[in-house]
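tool_log.txt
---
The assistant was asked to compare two proteins side by side. It first ran the structure predictor on the initial sequence, then on the second. Raw inputs and outputs are pasted verbatim so the downstream comparison step can read them without reformatting.
(1)
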Amino acid sequence: MGGMLVALVGVPAVLAAYLTAAGLLRLLPADMWWQSLGATDFADPRQLLYRHAFLPRLAISLLAGAALGLTGTLLQQVLRNPLAEPTTIGTNAGATVALTIATLYAPWLLEQGREWVALAGGALSTLAVLALAQGRSFSPVAIIISGLVVSLTCSSASALLMAANREYSEELFIWQSGSLIQNGDAVVLGFAPWLALAGIAAFLLLRPLRLLDLSDEGAESLGTKPVVTRLAGMSVAVALSSMAVAAVGVISFVALAAPALVRLAGARTLRQRMIWAPLAGATLLWLTDRLVQVMPFTSEIPAGVATAFLGAPLLFLLLPKLRTSPDRDGAMLSSMRRRSGWPYLLAGLLAMALLLCAALVVGRGATGWHVASAAELADLLPLRAPRIVVAVSAGMMLGVVGTLMQRMTGNPMAAPEVLGVSGGASLGILLLFVATSDVSRPAMIAAGFVGALASLAMISPTGRRQPIAHDRLLLSGVAVATMASAFSAVMLASGDPRLDTLIGWLSGSTYRATAADATIAAVTATALLAIVPLTIRWLEILPLGEAASRGLGLSLFRVRIILLVLISVPTTIATLVIGPLSFVGLMAPHLARMLGFQRALPQLFASAMLGGMMLVSADWAGRTLIFPWQIPAGLLAALVGGPYFMVLMWKGRQ
């Protein structure tokens, strides 16, 4: 056991030390290292870089890695969840959005240090996650689902703020992607005491934390209070992870990887994990940071992006270790009543038609609110009609696809945005951006379709092996979405001249919608609505489970393949025309169910109408609320949908 742990820490450390020494020798001769450390010659640029950039970067990589390793160990012990870490429980997202708001609109809050702002944001988001998960006894599934929704909401808010402040977007993206670049000792000297205090507090809590391996009753019989212990452990972990975000941005998956790797290497007890996980985290981040500096890219990849690329595959490997139990998540947002549906669908069609007309004729101009006359409409139609058609078509496609995914997987949280299908489509399109400078619409559709199918292929085996393990299916999608967002961050931090276009597209904008986009989206949505009624029998049977489906004569392989294609194509088109960020595919099926549309066919059409109405409303509000500026429709839908979905989860827990 000891040999494996030493190798786990020692091998990356030796390789990182070699790369560090090689980098130092390129910067400064070895005989000048000690002298430049104590008495830096400010007239020598090499010594300045060595003393105020290279060495602080080396130190912060070790300190941040150790902090994340300890944070992951504490969270996994407190929550009894091997997949708990600051990213999956929403702490990082809360700290990030708080720092983004303060940086853009209240810089005076940062005068006393970024740490307090990050701590407030991380603590609030974590409390929101715990409040949503409390009703289901803080089960691993409940915490991860709650963390996912909170993280998506905070990420939407951050993206909206950056889209509204394009002049700072590149710097904010680099920082949010986890950059270890340093300019002096200030960050290192500010972060080291926090790490020392957190380490002392963690070891003072060692005995009560160790008793959490028992049941709550067993821990209480030994004189501890599990609730107090969990609160204390969570406080230390949240504080430490928030400080890390304030210091270096979001470093993904080190807090997940380090405790998992040391456990696999033989660290069975909590004391062993609390000692070895920080060491493993420090060496992993140190090595990662050295590797990104020697890779032959035109610009340096942020360390947080590199760790996401490494950590997402690790998440797949760890999924089988997540303990599962039958849960009530499927009933979390269930409806209180049933309806036959069709009369209400006719009313919905009427409401949708009125909304489309209002979006077309009502707007704001230099003189204020205005209703377009027939003569003005002729001039406005070429500008507004493509946007409206794209928004309603994309919303309808996402609503139908969300319903298909939820019924196919039996997972109430399934949606193209959540399970990584939208992320896979966007990843395919981004790879096309990298591969060629001349990007055509057919090529983007093909690349997005391949990416969506690939992401579905990655998550589908998990669902087949564990048909009732909704958490594993969900987290597989989280891993795919993480890889896609990591690659997006690489593109956005690269200084690509198409950066403005990429930001607008990734945030869900209809700004550049053309007549061709509207035609493609409308034809795809119409074809989807014409085809899905043929799958109704499958969609009624699949939620009953795999055994029942086989018993009723379904060929599950063939059914899944057909449904995967029906999911991938519309998701690709919707992602292409409006971007990957939206809650529509998640919300529309639940809203349809809440309104009483329980059967498959009425739910599909109700979800389509609700999805279309949501995105049209978001697009109209986005172009009128802060006129003459605009808010991307996808971002606005996500920002409104996230809190709304949290309200539904809160009601469902009671």
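(2)
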Amino acid sequence: MSEGIPRAVLTEALRAQINGREVLAAVFCTFRFDPGFFEREILPALFDLQLHQDPQIRRVQLEEALRPLAGRVAVYYDPGAIVTGDGTACLDVRRIPVRPRTGYFHPKNAFILVRDTSTQERSLVVLTGSANLTQAGWWENVECAHLEEIAEYGRSRTAPEIQRFLRHLRTMAKNFETHAALDEVHSVLRTAQPIAHRTANGRLHPHFLFNGRRGAQSLVDQLDAVAGQWLRHADLEVLSPYLDDADASVPLETLIDRFQPGKWRVLLPEEGGLARCRPELYDWVRERGGEWGRLPKAVLTRGGKQAAVATHRSVHAKVYRFFTKDWEITLVGSFNLTSPAHSGSGNVESGMLSEVAVDRRPRFWLEAIEEPPPFAQPVGEDDGVDQGYVPLLARYDWASGQAEVLWDGAGESRPIQVYDRGVHLFDVGQLERAVWTALTVDDAAILRERLRETSFLTAVAGDQRGIVLVHETGMAHRPSILLDLSPADILRYWSMLPAEQRNAYLAAHGEALRGPGEGLPMEAPPDTIFDRFAGIFHGFASLGRAVRDALDEERVEEARFRMFGAKYDSVPVLVEQMANETAGDPLDRYLMVLCAQQLADHVRRDFPAFWASDPAGISRLEEALAVRAVLREQLIARNDAEMAEFLDWYEPRFLGETAVVTA
């Protein structure tokens, strides 16, 4: 029977759907969120890269891969369901909490905008499923997912429905002003030509269903409106890991009464051999004419065929299957068989209803249970959630150095104490509801230092205690994971135009930093003065082209990383090293600063709006460039008076319109 159940590895299925195309933006929705696991193991699926096996080196490579997407990868999550896991977040991902006033933010989606670089055609890859952005969701549980694609300017039934969902998402995340990733996704959805008909050639078009809005229809009403004429009297199978803690299931009763299935079977939630529902509910299903079932052992085990190594997998999938001998219509998504999930205005949920192509008669996936099992305390879908939740939001802007907090609870907050791993950081007074309040300069500096190590804080407000995930922006100015590239390393890195070459270089350099081990050999730097100067000119010329191309193509944030950022290969980082005598010969250092000044002058002249957009970055760069005067004096002191005359003649010509190095 298990042979009829479609199976695939979620990450591999997503990567196969992207199929090597360039990712332009990505929006993820999740209930539980483990930001460290997301960055290490889920983000790589977006990129066609050979990443290093070491997690830290992989993060350095991902930091580079994310630059063209600056601000356009976002995760919307329920702040009451944060998973700290075994790591923290440090990459350029917008982490936006969404807390509905009723119920939970419970959808599990990915909306990934891709472009075929050979044809320039754009499409939206849509994943709708049951897996949270956690290790359990993507690696361990039995989950479900539906993948489809919406082509730019193509025809789509789901595009208008997804647009409505994303507009509602923006409304729920009203505490945050910018949603660049959502804007990019909308840019494709707006071009789609809506399909008005529910079916084509007798087959049901996919439909994107969601609830959690005021006045929204219940799930059963939505199913009836879209496909009620087909669903009535079909066989029904429901997989849901959570049920209401009640003697009878109102959502299941509503389904049965509305669609009058011929036969119906429901997954029995189990853990450790114990049924996680009331005995009365178990009997009620049997009395209503239904059956309980469990998935075959082949689906529930992992780790090999031998019992000694096989481990049990928890079922977290949410699937509603309606089928006859000729067809099957399936709802896949986040809808548990619970009242908050089925109510139109309870939890925020999402799912994809679609007709499944069948080449043989569909059968039940679940194996019927004949004997009643032993029972344990029912587990609700909110199990483990809100254990110490505090409705405090925090954000930090690396560009301005400003830190702010917001109270998202009812009324004013109590005084709040903020900790990091048991160490008291600072106090926050009473906060007005839904108003961003700036921290003091000293407290912002403390937070900045802590964010180098962890993005999690612990907030205590009266008797409430919970984890807060800091929302970070201005990531071009966040110090890089890889900070100690030498000036020669940075110039060589700028010269590496193909992404594959840069990626391999990062892997090799990261390996060298970690100590002996496998890695690419590092080339020795050139020794002759000609090679040194040629290398300097070539490195800056390559960087100039990259900055100009990024600005011409409106990839402003990528250019910001290069010109004003705090990353290992940003211009200010290189120039700041020139003040250190160990960075090399004064002549080499002077020439590097002169090239940096020339590049800055060209960018200021040719892209004035971009230059004026980052006062903090300009200030840091200009302060670093002031070392040129010191290096000039060192050169004059080391030589004779003719050097001063030569530099007076050389500098204006180098920095003028006929400059040697051009962007």
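---
observation on (2): The longest helix spans residues 529-552. Residues 304-309, 515-526, 657-663 have pLDDT under 50 and may be disordered.
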